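Worked example

This section walks through a single chain of length 626. The input is the sequence exactly as stored; nothing has been trimmed or padded.
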Amino acid sequence: MSHGRASLMLHALLFPLAAYFYHRSLAPCPHGEVESKCVEWLWGEDGVRKIIVHFSISCVIINYLLIRTFFLRTLPVGFCLAWPATVVVLYSWDGDTRFSSHGGVNRAALILVISIVALFLIAIILHNKFTAHISRRWGIAGAGKYETYGACLMAMLLLVSALTRITTADHEYYHSPGHTPFDTTHRACTMQKPKLHLFDLVSGVFNVARFSFCSSYDVSWIPENVKSADYIALPLVNSLPIEGHKTAAQVQSYLVNNVREVDNSGAAEVTLRAGMTRKPKLNVKAIRNETMVRERRKILDSNKHGQGDQEAKNSTSNIIILFLDAVSRPMLKRKLPKVYQVLNSWSEKGLANVTTFFRFNSIAYYTVPNLSALNFGAAVEELKKDVNRLAPDNLFTRAQARGYVTGFAQTLCQATDLDWTQVPVDEPHDHRYVSCDPNLIDGENPFDNFKGPFSIFKRCMYGRYAHQYALDYALSFWRAYHDMPKLLKVNLMEAHEGTAELIQYSDDHLAHFLIKVEESLPNTVIFLLSDHGNHMHGVFKLFSSREGELETRTPMLNIVTPATMRSKLPQNANMLVSMFDVHATVRGLLGDTNKSKFRDLINQDVEVTRTCAQAGISDSNCQCAK
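Given that input, the structure is written out below as tokens.
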């Protein structure tokens, strides 16, 4: 058999095998959360085969594209040496702790990938055009017709796949859970639409997280005085003073240096089964505070006698705010299909009303201004100037004043919701869980692209994902106060990284959380939202394309209300809205009267002539067509 035919057959065999083993490896582990067994299962069933297949493919491609097509015989050696050199350079660059450098490594990696692809295309062109010349001059045999046919077939398959992705994305761009109809007749805001849907086209291409595992852990950070204890408890950050504890390093140092020995895993809200002979296990749960419950019930009784008819009508028992940083509206279906399916099933079964806001526009391209609007109903510049006056407008403060119990959990190491280094204001949470374990984050380098809340790899602690602990804590809080009105906010940072792929690993657990709170739907309003779309993806950082800007400006906003609740949501779904309106809406659910210029989306109509300026959105960040 000729070398060309053998090479083609090898390609035809290895690529389907690689696809098969990869999809099998995505199946849930049959051993649940027993990490050691899951790792053994993965490696035993699919992992080794997957690695062998991918390695074989790489060898074939390098042989076919480099050795047989390039007329410079030294290129394969230089190419191989370039890889470790590039890794060293990227790792050194990523050591910068400044936020301004955050994401730079992704651009560099993208440039490397594009260079390889360009090299591949040039090789094909040179190979087919100058085969005879190369063969005569360098004595390297040209490719046979089978190799040429194989290359053409591969190119055609890639083209068909790309066109299918683009067409599907275009068809589904205005689809939503709950089937909210999209209206194109908005007078003041004609929505721009991506021309090529590049995010959908490159979806899955940069997923380096698939090669990282959650099985490793480190307990060397545990202080010597409690290292031999069976269980240790980490302190809560509710009473952490703002002065001296603004950075991730300061908060982490406080938690690590104040651990204490306890008798069992139920002795505190955050405990770690330590000891020297057993695998560590982190336990998180909210512990009910009966004293606080009695105080809040007095407030509830007082409010019932004093509130007006409209306030009583608007108030609801429970509010959940699921805040997924850097998730656009199209990204919900693209990367969180199970969450999308849960929301859709609620609507189709009549369990709840699900409304998607198509013209929900980010206030700015980064988090702080959007969170300032959400939590305080104020622009960040205004909040910084007059913190004391605006602090009482915080959602958690208002909720507590109405008798609600408040809970907060996040996969970030900062003691409160807003970044204290930018806005020096505390927010009162009755229960608060933050992710500062040294296995997850290096407090001295919190913006590392390979470890921490912005990592492109899986973010794990003791064999589980960081977001699982946050959702476990949130669910335990929900159950601990089953008989009380609650305001719960969960912040997940899993999409805030440069590949736009890591968020998919939270899909199962987030969908599971929603299913667990399903029984509360008759008296609960859920906000599933983001501050902005993905603004770190290397493709769009490099080219600053129109598609990248649209992705950033169109975060998701889905509001789930009880099936029996009458509201203005269907009419407002196609209006231009912002985080200021979400703040007003939550305040309305708490029973507060809206006195701002922004709109309570449940109880008030949004003007069809509304502009970005009227919605509190800067002109540079407006998604409406100019």
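What to look for: Residues 209 and 458 are 6 Å apart (CA to CA).
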